[in-house]
Amino acid sequence: MAANPQFVKYVDDHQADFIDRLRQAVEIPSVSGNLDYVKDVEDMAEFLVKQLTSLGVKVEKRPIGSHKIGDTEVALPPVVIGEIGNDPKKVNLLVYGHYDVQPALKEDGWDYDPFKLTPDPNGSGRLYGRGSTDDKGPVMGWLNVLEAHQKLGLELPVNLKMVFEGMEENGSENLDKFIESEKDKFFKGVDVMCISDNYWLDTKTPCLTYGLRGINYYEIKVQGPARDLHSGVFGGTIHEPMTDLIAVMSKLVSPSGEILIPGIKELIAPVTADEQSKFEKIHFSLSDIEGAVGAQTTLSNDTVKTLMGRMRNPSLSLHGIEGAFYAPGSKTVIPAAVKGKFSIRLVPNLGIKNTTDLVVKYVQDEFAKLGSKNKLEVYLTHGGEPWIADPNHYNYRAAHKATVEVYGQEPDYTREGGSIPVTLDFANILGLNVLLLPVGRGDDGAHSTNEKIDTSNYINGTKLLGSYMYELAAIDKN
């Protein structure tokens, strides 16, 4: 069922009002995890409460505990929940977004004040500002949908529940506990879920995202002498921790990106014909990734292999060494202890535990081959499981039809190389099919300087969210 044409016209006619709503949101510097901005994060939660209440939504702010910022104990930002509609004949849709943002200062390299929504003076339609695409733009998009229906006197085609958190940029602390505690209360009866907190792969092609890689982050600690030593006095007389560490880390991954830990490759789920077809259809060229990294350094010249390397296969990256000399100049020190840091991006069949078992055994075995008298520890510091949804579920079919309706083209079906931990929490705890429905483009620069959202994406994204609800209401659920 196509979206009500009155709704579409209202969105077109009220672009200026919707941009002003985003302006108000961006001007609240809701940087989470920073004492200087605690009140601003609270103000942003209150802004949402007032907006949603004015749009006919039953809203609550829920406390979810406290945390420490430095040595100060402060309340975690509240979770804002809202619901509108309770027709038993309608689909129950849950949407998620976050109202906190990454830090930003003008002196970081921004062309404009990051907390003032600034239209590109060159007329490109870009709207610059921290949070414009991550995630205030999409959250305001849902509010725009509600306003259009309220002002037009139209009933929503679905029953809508909303959950907006203020700690996503700092690990969504305690959100999993909140979801678990409300599983049979606020979240009871939810049929499907939509999250708009990711982006198109490029700047031209809308997409639906049905998978996320997980992550295991590890440290290898090598301990040798009791203190740092002078290489002129002790070089050539002791087992050096740095030498041992580099020897071990060099055995983790090859220059061609192959993970060298035995057993990893054997666990990777085989590519299905349906998967292969989805990857082959993605609108992508090597120039897209070369432009993003600023160099021609892809491991493969094959676009499908490159996409699979980014989205559906595991990867191992070396991140750094702690305890080593790194300042400018020369210092002839032998570090007493060093920590090497690396991570593995997880995919289905590669979970936190079975991957860690393989990593620990392999690292210990490789260290033993060195015959070193130093001591080694290898351990997981944190992990997040991978997630994949059924892209043939009616939730995705509805979003597919809505995308064609709004953009006049079929969406790419993508998987993200990074992690959005809340997706897994909602999917696992509530047992839902979760749709990732991006609003922004691949060049929006979330977390970076000069973050932006294009006016066309913001306005068409509002239409997309509304159209998705109409298609969800009409789609064959079988």
Polypeptide structure, described:
By secondary structure, the protein is an alpha+beta fold. The protein folds into two domains: 5-212 and 386-474, 3-Layer(aba) Sandwich (Aminopeptidase); 214-268 and 313-384, Alpha-Beta Plaits, CATH 3.30.70.360. Helix content is 35%, strand content 22%. It has 15 helices and 20 strands. The strands form six sheets. It has a six-stranded mixed sheet, with helices on both faces. A hairpin with a 2-residue loop joins strand 2 (66-69) and strand 3. Helix 2 (15-26) packs across helix 4 (136-152). The longest helix has 20 residues, at 455-474. It is globular. The two termini are 16 Å apart. Pfam families: M20_dimer, Peptidase_M20. This is Peptidase M20 dimerisation domain-containing protein. The active site is at 100, 168 (proton acceptor). Residues 210-368 form the Peptidase M20 dimerisation domain. Its cofactor is Mn(2+).
